[in-house]
Amino acid sequence: EKPHKCWECGKGFKSGSQLLIHRRSHSGERPYECGECGKGFQTRSNLLKHRGIHGEERPFRCAQCGKGFKQNSALLNHRRSHSEERPHECGECGKSFKWSSHLNIHLRSH
User: Fold this and answer.
1) Which residues belong to any copy of the C2H2-type domain (predicted)?
2) What is the DSSP letter of 77?
């Protein structure tokens, strides 16, 4: 059961705190800021994950551009920037996007 519903998109959540974090995807709020580079994040856990990029070791390298990453998952996500893959499709109009965040922005236009 997911009693906490987002009034903007209807998505349900088990807890109010999960809904609060989700609401930031609509508002763009990023209250957790990296002290080193100033980048903002919607959750504390994402900020903590991000802080690792300021370290020196980046063993996962992109074969196309040479950019290094601390996590293989970040490299896999980055590779999409070099491809034409657009896995996030709007169910209403069929337009596709490389990134889920771009789809979320687009969905507000309907």
Assistant:
1) 4-31, 32-59, 60-87, 88-110
2) H
DSSP H or E stretch at residue 14 = none
Fold for domain 4-54? Double Stranded RNA Binding Domain (3.30.160)
Q: Which helix (H) or strand (E) holds 12?
A: strand 12-13
97 Cβ neighbours under 8 A, 6+ residues apart: 86, 88, 89, 90, 103, 106
Where in the chain are the domains? 4-54
Could you tell me the pTM of the whole model?
0.46
Query: Cα(36)–Cα(16) distance, rounded to whole angstroms?
Result: 31
